[in-house]
């Protein structure tokens, strides 16, 4: 997700600032592969900008939901 979602500093409405991917019931190998892919996408956007003034940086969060 965009780190701007946490900062609430936009003075424009860009629409969707980021779409999440929710996955579940993965094997350990699939989970590790997904983590690597997410880290690569995060690296690609590390130095990006939106509207020539805001960071385009992304962050990856992982969590478990107990049922």
How is this structure best summarized?
The protein has 67 residues and is mainly alpha-helical.
Characterise the protein shown here:
By secondary structure, this protein is mainly alpha-helical. Helix content is 31%, strand content 6%. The chain is built from two helices and two strands; from the N terminus they run H-H-E-E. The chain has helices at 4-7, 28-44; strands at 49-50, 54-55. Strands 1-2 form a two-stranded antiparallel ribbon. The chain is elongated. The two termini are 25 Å apart.
Spatial separation of the terminal alpha carbons: 25 Å
Indicate the percent of residues in helices: 25-40%
Shape: elongated
Largest sheet: 2 strands, antiparallel
Number of helices: 2
Low-confidence stretches: none
Beta-strand percentage range: 5-15%
**Arrangement of strands in the largest sheet:** 1-2
Structural class: mainly alpha
Q: Give the mean pLDDT.
A: 79
Question: What does the secondary structure layout of this molecule look like, with pairings?
Answer:
Layout: H1 4-7, H2 28-44, E1 49-50, E2 54-55
Antiparallel strand pairs: 1-2
Features:
67 residues, elongated
């Amino acid at each position: 997700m965009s780190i701007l979602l946490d900062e609430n500093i936009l003075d424009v409405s860009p629409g969707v600032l980021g779409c999440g991917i929710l996955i579940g019931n993965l094997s350990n190998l699939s989970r590790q592969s997904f983590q690597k892919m997410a880290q690569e996408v995060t690296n690609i956007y590390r130095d990006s900008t939106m509207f020539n003034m805001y960071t385009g940086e992304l962050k990856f969060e992982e969590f478990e939901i107990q049922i």
